[in-house]
Design a protein that fits this description.
Layout (H helix, E strand, L loop, with lengths): L1 H28 L3 H24 L16 H12 L3 H19 L2 H10 L3 H8 L5 H28 L2 H12 L13 H25 L7 H16 L2
Helix pairs in contact: 2-5, 2-6, 2-9, 2-10, 4-7, 4-9, 5-7, 7-9
Length: 239
Amino acid sequence: MKRYVLMATMGLSLVSCDVLKTVATEVLTIPTTTEAASALKDALKQGFGSGVDVLSAVGGFNKNNAIRILLPDDAQKIADKLRSIGMGSQVDKVIDKLNEGAESAVATAKPIFMDAVTNMSFSDAMGILTGGNGAATNYLKQTTTTALTSAFKPKIQAALDQVGFTANWTSLVNEYNKIPFITKMNPDLNDYVTQKTLTALFSKVEEEENLIRNNPAKRTTELMKKAFAYADSQKSTTK
């Protein structure tokens, strides 16, 4: 009888040890706020670095039909008229320049993103880490959109001016707007192209972020592996 009691006690002790080891392991895998912030900064730098490099390359917009910027619907009316009188090549050149402007503008994004990441507070880090797909990109949208808009506009304007687009287009639109009973058209395409560029950039950054969140092989630093493994465990416990 004593022998069975002893064996049972030893068994419970072993189970208890295993439980303690498991708990200890789980505790050790929880990143500190400093580690979470550092991991997020690594992930964001990797994500926006890849995104910016792809979009700012020659043809990053022009050769990608999914994001290539076309004229807005109202401007297309004038473009169609120009094509009908043999000016299709000029219209195509304008569209090419719109996209080249977007490519040039995106190249200015890295230092702005870097500044936002550097200034990320520790209190934000854990919430963003466990916030699921797109959480870090949403943080960048909130903290960089104003600065990116200001940085993008001159680059896009330079591309428009390069083909003499601004003066000619404004003149055409102003004449078009004199027609009675039509919906007036805004001749300034800079705002339109800027917004399209921002949309494409954040979409690409979010794509890169979600690859890191959903594919452990994309986690290239030890801190990223630890922090996102913890985020994975939190995701599974909330289902």
